[in-house]
Amino acid sequence: MKTTIYNKLVRDHIPVIIESSGKKAVCETITNNEDYLKLLKDKLLEEMNEFLESGDVAELADMGEVMHALLEYKGVSVETFQRIRLEKLEKRGGFKNRILLREVIEE
Question: Residue 9, by phi and psi: left (phi above 0), alpha (psi -120 to 50) or beta?
């Protein structure tokens, strides 16, 4: 019998998917808010690293799902998040112009 240890946050249907393949998924529900927040942050980093390695847009979708979970955890609606994003876009711009800041010289 082979056991692989993960200890990571997974999407809600993953245990069922694992068990439908004939394997046994050992899971628990995270009830401690600090643990949940840490696991969400870890998951965001995991998905970001997977995107950086593969360039696959599906990994950005996974990052988006984690971001939605973080917003829900923080009690921030998607609409509020979008408003904040648009305000920053208006004040500071986006990345369409591909500007690389090389240095700032103070005199």
Answer: beta
